[in-house]
Amino acid sequence: MTSTSDLLFEFLRKIIYDPAGAELDIESLDDEYRRLGQGLIFLSKMLEEKDVFLNALAKGDLSLSPPSKDNIMASSVKALHASLRHLSWQTQQVAAGDYQQKVDFMGEFSDAFNQMITQLDTRQTALQSEIKRSNERALALEQSNTFFLSVSESISLGIIVFNLSSKKILFSNSSAEKIMNIHENFANFLIKNHTANSSEAIEISFDTNRTVNTKTRYYSLKVFPIHWSNEDANVFVFDDITAEKAKRLELEIYATKDALTGVNNRYAGMKRLFQLFESEKPFTLAFIDLDNLKYVNDVLGHAEGDAYIIYVSTRLSELSPDAVVSRIGGDEFMIVIPNSKKEDILNLLSDTRLNMMKYSTANEKEYTMSFSYGTVQEDEGKDVSDLLSIADDRMYTFKREYKKSKRNDT
Predict the structure, then answer these.
(1) CB-based contacts of 175: which residues, under 8 Å, 6+ apart?
(2) How far apart are CA 381 and CA 177, in angstroms?
(3) Which of 337, 334, 409 is nearest to 373 (CA)?
(4) Which of 129, 169, 241, 288 has the most neighbouring CB atoms within 10 Å?
(5) Is this prediction's pTM over 0.85?
(6) What would you measure as the largest C-alpha separation in the chain, in angstroms?
(7) Residue 397, domain CATH
(8) Which domain holds residue 236?
(9) CA gap 103, 155 in Å, rounded
(10) Confidence band of 142 (pLDDT split at 50, 70, 90)
(11) Strands across the sheet with 231-240, in order?
(12) With bands split at pLDDT 50, 70 and 90, how would you rate the model's confidence at 372?
């Protein structure tokens, strides 16, 4: 038979570890322990009431009624509940624009909250001041046509205001006049071809046909509607970007061309290779590696080595008008030839190599100009990486065989 102390201890354990399953039959206790059992039951109820309230707070539910006033164990929780409800009210006041609210009961959170309120107050004041200043500036600009004229005459941008109904130019600044003097019918060209509104600048080109040598110049153009002197009009704002476009083209060339040879660099060559592979059209890929370049650089100098590289790149570029030649390393080239057969390219490479070797002999070079190569057809690999690997392997196989044949010759 279970003793009273065991029953009480088990009930206490349940209160701690399994409150939902905590039950105690008072009648099963010895008389002298029944009062203690009633006290434990009361304790269990107070704890359960406190836990329910705490769980609601943990979920952010402040609507639950707090524990009864007899539950002194929940007094601190009830105080927290009251503080959080007050904090919630304060937050609503801040959302409504009251930045005088302060929190002083939650330590670091209070400091952060109060600092945030101060910053919001400062920013709102600054924003209101900025709005006021912006309104004043907008009003001044609207009322001061003299100011607009002064500004428009001091900038390099060309400005034309055109009434689409009457087909008349209502305004043009000095920069626009200069451009219209250079380009005959420039204004008519803009009005005829670019009447649609554009929030972003578009690029247009126009020939300088008043000079002996016609030269194309480029302009960026924006078109937007305006109400001008009680008339609905379009404003054309344009800028001469010819120099900028030339610089951009130069940078594009630098980004895609090898500085030494002028052929494509690795980036441009790989881009073209991927494009051809994705198009599923036939092509041949070739890897080229110069022979004897280290010897040339070490013995004859890098100037001779550079001349050697340039000579080879020139010969490779003559393989086919469709060949895309790229320098992908110091002495490595890659060639992609669309609509070609591997056998034809192998013959061309072989002929080019033999002609180079003959050229070396005829010009009494201290070294033999030649290269090793490996080719692959587009359908020999499952992807670009596979094709590159195959071509690379075949090129190194060719190089080993070439070195072996040289040793045998000696």
Answers:
(1) 155, 156, 157, 158, 159
(2) 62
(3) 334
(4) 288
(5) no
(6) 126
(7) 3.30.70.270
(8) 148-242
(9) 54
(10) low
(11) 168-172, 158-163, 231-240, 215-228, 198-208
(12) very high
